[in-house]
């Protein structure tokens, strides 16, 4: 087990990191499934994207709830802004992902058009951004 270098510590609890790892992996995977569908016209890729999106929403919802607790818990510390930013990114990611899930629940042929692709891109970028904020190290105050 490696010790945390002096003066730095992660923003989030290891269990929160485990919850956050799912949307970080699943939202970009759904994006790749959408891109593959647009290149192949195989409807099964939209089903893959819908299930990946649903998994990201399920576990991502718990990550959002945990970030609410962290934002409240860290409100009087030096990392309050980063905790709040993480919460906002996760909340917007989850809402965009939910809209994307509704988009993907439409007819298979029309579920991934411009709207579905843009929603997948936005949710993937927000998930990766939240991961960047959460897994980066901060200076302790």
TrEMBL record:
Signal peptide annotation: none
Domain DUF2231 as annotated: residue spans: 13-132
Residues annotated as transmembrane: 48-72, 84-102, 114-135
Keywords, sorted A to Z: Membrane, Transmembrane, Transmembrane helix
Protein name: DUF2231 domain-containing protein
Species assigned in the record: Sphingomonas montanisoli
């Amino acid at each position: 087990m490696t010790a945390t270098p002096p003066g730095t510590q992660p923003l989030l609890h290891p269990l929160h990191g485990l919850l956050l790892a799912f949307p970080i992996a699943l939202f970009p995977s759904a994006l790749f499934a959408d891109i593959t569908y647009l290149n192949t016209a195989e409807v099964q890729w939209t089903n893959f994207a819908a299930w990946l999106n649903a998994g990201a929403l399920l576990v991502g919802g718990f990550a959002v709830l945990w970030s609410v607790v962290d934002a409240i818990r860290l409100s009087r510390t030096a990392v309050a802004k980063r905790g709040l930013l993480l919460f906002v990114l996760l909340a917007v990611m989850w809402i965009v992902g939910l809209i994307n899930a509704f988009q993907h629940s439409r007819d298979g042929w029309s579920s991934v058009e411009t709207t579905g692709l843009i929603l997948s891109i936005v949710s993937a970028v927000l998930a990766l951004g939240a991961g960047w904020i959460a897994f980066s190290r901060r200076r302790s105050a």
